[in-house]
Amino acid sequence: MAYQMNFTPVLARAPELVEGTINTVFLSAQSIAIGVTIGLAIALIRVDGPKWAAAAGATYVEAFRNTPLLVQLFLIFFGLPYMGVRLSANTAAILAISLNLGAYSTEIFRAGLLAIPRTQIEAGLALGLSRLQVMRYVIIVPALRIIYPALTGQLTLTLLGSSMASAISATELTLAAAKIESQTFRSLETFLIAAAIYIALTFVFRAIYWLIGLWLFRRKAPPAPVLVPLLERQPEARI
Amino acid sequence: MPALRIEKLRKSYGALPVLKGIDLSVENGDVVAIIGRSGSGKSTMLRCINGLEPFQEGSIEVAGHRVEGSSSRLRELRKEVGMVFQGYNLFPHLNVADNITLAPRVVKGVPRAECDALVQQVLSRVGLEEKAGAYPDELSGGQQQRVAIARSLAMKPKVMLFDEVTSALDPELTGEVLKTIAELAEAGMTMVLVTHEMSFARRVATRTVFMHEGRVWEEGLSETFFSSPQTPELQSFIAPNLN
Ligand SMILES: Nc1ncnc2c1ncn2[C@@H]1O[C@H](COP(=O)(O)OP(=O)(O)OP(=O)(O)O)[C@@H](O)[C@H]1O
Ligand SMILES: [Mg+2]
After folding, report:
1. Tally of domains in chain A
2. What ipTM was predicted for this assembly?
């Protein structure tokens, strides 16, 4: 006897799914914005900062890349209160996911910065730019261009990984789905819908990365069809 | 006061001595060609002059600045000492106009409104007025090198350093770059150029310097330098180029 799929009880909870989706978008977007900023800053410090700061950055990266995101969420949400820092589940989720992405993206940004030939740096210095100005005006954009596919891939992992925040009851899509499932007992239908929403979200996010890439690398990037986001292309060999 | 004065310059990479006591003086408006075998220290000396490479002993004074001290003092010096590299080193993500105006804008604070005129002015000196909107990878090697020269000129340097700027170019493209440099010489720019182009050195440089084993081995006015080399090392170095 085949299982009879019935989406009706799940679809009746559409408002909760919509709310969960919106929460996931905000949780991910904020974590991505903060995480990428952390990653870029620490990468710059690791490449060109004072030794002690570079070492501190390396320690942070190793700590967060060698522990599970779930444990990081638990530590921040359940552990920090013992040190007098009590965060709401949503804030703890943003903090944990940002720090996790910050660690991974540090390594990605660093690879890009290190791939820029020394001669570019020297050309900038020889023109009278400071090291910081060389970073900002000469190196960052070509470096980003090299690592853009790797970075956006990491951001997709972050978007999907935000579902782990449900473990500390941060409001987001997976938590909403789990609640609906526990009340309708329609596990297959509920999580199929959740999965479909995640697929739709990744498409939307990737389209946004593609648009940002078009703007960042506006130096005549070849026109790409929107449905095959630029992220999937290999960067040209030369930068 | 000379545009460039190097005294007793010594530099080593770790245990490897590369410059073993260089003395060299360049007057305003002089064009000095540096020739010598690979590894004789020509690039190293040039890079010491604008502080890209630290040195251990001796002193360098260029365009009224001593090469020493903090990075902010070096930046003051580099504003007035241009450098053009063998590999052009244009910024690939910026078009020609932005390559040219980046340093004037962020280092000297030249307002955007004056940038168009600046771009046209320096591009006309290298004969590339119509390329302001092009990107580096849309240009030939010779054109890229001329843009690199224009980019240096945009800072209005008092002294320009050229490190084998035609060595990466096909023979048919070297001519246009050498012509640009010759015109700068004509216009009175003070220049130090490391080159393998003997006939060019002879024709354009007021003086030529032969570096050998980290020393200024022989130097002189270009005419007599090439026609009557004194040391056997220089004789054997230029012999293959004489015919
Ligand atoms: N960054 C460096 N580290 C260690 N040794 C170096 C470095 N740069 C140059 N050298 C060494 O210093 C010596 C002089 O090099 P330099 O590049 O100044 O020679 P050059 O006269 O410009 O030669 P070429 O005609 O090949 O350009 C060489 O023996 C070279 O191997
Ligand atoms: Mg050299």
Report:
1. 1
2. 0.93
The count of CB pairs under 8 A between chains A and B is 68
Ligand 1 pocket member B41 (CB < 6 A): yes
Atom number, ligand 1, closest to the C-alpha of residue B36: 21
Residue A75: count other Cβ atoms within 10 Å of its Cβ: 13
Q: Whole-model pTM?
A: 0.85
- Inspect the interface and report whether the beta carbons of A219 and B135 lie closer than 8 Å: yes
Do B151 and B128 meet the contact criterion of CB atoms below 8 Å apart?
no
Range(s) of chain B covered by CATH 3.40.50.300: 1-80+159-243
- Between the two ends of chain A, the Cα-to-Cα distance in Å is 60
User: What CATH class is the domain B1-80+159-243?
Assistant: alpha beta
User: Which pLDDT tens digit goes with each residue over B189-242?
Assistant: 999 999 998 988 998 999 999 999 999 999 999 888 988 888 989 988 888 765
